[in-house]
Amino acid sequence: MWHISPSGTTDPVFTVAPPASLTDSAHEAIAASIYSGAMAPGSRIVIDQVATALSMSISPVREALMRLAAEGLVTFEANRGYTVAPHLGEVEFDQLFRARRLLECGAFDGRDRMSWSDLEVERVSRAMDAANAASIGPDYPAYSAFSRADHAFHEAVIELSGNRFIHSAWRGLNFHLHISRLYEAHGVVDYASAVDEHAVILAAVRSGDLPALTAAIAAHIDNAAVRLRALLSDPAGSAAQ
């Protein structure tokens, strides 16, 4: 994997398994540059320069940028092209957490108990184990591993609701993509707390007690908002961890 520098040159930073396509490769490289700060918020992304840096045609780069725009990491304006989206402000941060809370808790509203197959519960358990084992360091390759595993855990939980519309809306938040930008230079500062709270969620899943499950999810989301708010004032900075 290659990291794109602001000048359009490439510097080898880390190696990952080859993505499924050139578009995936371009998406990962651009995202890594955004998270690391090499592509700063508000900076213009020149498709030709990125394609040259990645030694590929402009088509997969354009497709990757369209996906990144849908995810909210870049913005597009006619006659200007693509630019790196700004970091979340306090208002957007609060709105994002509120939307997540409404969806994840609301997915199980109106029922007291549900039962799931051993396979479904095991999927949640495996996702939790993967998050527990993921790297949590301050650079993109490290904290992105945790972010992906954390996303998989929460997705496995929300899928238990059986509500495909809420699931789709939840995916559309791209919550973990936005919050991951706060981890740059800090790492996963709330890892230990997240591990403990995930265990409470899993216990509630195993019991089938939906009020307990929604309470555990709500507490986890509310606590995470408090823990991560401090990073808003120092994105990609050097605040004490």
Q: How would you portray this structure in words?
A:
- It is a single chain.
- With 241 residues, this protein is mainly α.
- The protein has two domains: 2-84, Winged helix-like DNA-binding domain superfamily/Winged helix DNA-binding domain (Arc Repressor Mutant, subunit A, Orthogonal Bundle); 90-233, GntR ligand-binding domain-like (Four Helix Bundle (Hemerythrin (Met), subunit A), Up-down Bundle), CATH 1.20.120.
- It is 60% helix and 7% strand.
- The chain contains ten helices and five strands.
- The chain has helices at residues 22-36, 47-53, 58-71, 90-106, 118-133, 140-159, 164-173, 175-183, 191-207, 210-229, and strands at 2-4, 10-12, 44-45, 74-77, 81-84.
- The strands form two sheets. Strands 3-5-4 form a three-stranded antiparallel beta sheet.
- Helix 1 crosses helix 3, helix 4 (90-106) runs antiparallel to helix 7 and helix 5 (118-133) packs antiparallel against helix 6.
